[in-house]
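Why does residue order matter? Because the sequence determines the fold. Keep that principle in mind as you read this record.
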Amino acid sequence: MLCKSVFEVLASATGSEINYSPMVQKINKTCLKPDISCFVLFDGGFSGLVVANFTAAAALEIYQTYLLSMGIPQAELAIQHTSDDVGNVMGELMNQIVGDFTSRVGQELLTSISQNQPKMLAINKEVMISINTNLDRPQARRVTFKTAQNNIFYLEFAVDKTEFIQLHEFEKQDKTNPDKIIDEAASKHKNTAAKPAAEVVDNDLLEQLGF
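Structure:
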């Protein structure tokens, strides 16, 4: 679910191809790595940590492609990954990714988790981080992603060893579509408003005919 969130959010935001390895690595610990990294804590039905490690080239490609797709001129874009603007944009995208992930958890597992605000850092050395919560058997995984220009970034995920056992059959919840809800409400209001008007016309016609 988390890989799908990364893929769909970044592909949609940049309008470019994003791929990830079908192989998941088991790792002993998560850490922030150069050149630009982000981490997000989540809690609720289960607790964990999401870390994204980007090379400077990958971060700049995603940042620039995203803003160019929004109509920002090339001349106004940052050219250094250490720029505050790059960190802010990448943090915003990471927030969208984890938000999409928490939504998927609610729809597919019918449990709820919440996230904190992503922290984006430009670093030149590895930085060890741990989850400030009680994890009895922490599990860590890493997945490799590749951008359209073949720049690499990594997603790391740490969570307590968890097993979900289904108690009974259930249907996954549909993803909420605000536009669809608004259209349905407007259509319902239109039909309700049109009905009395039609009845008035019919009554007038009956009166003219002497009924």
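The chain has a mean pLDDT of 84.
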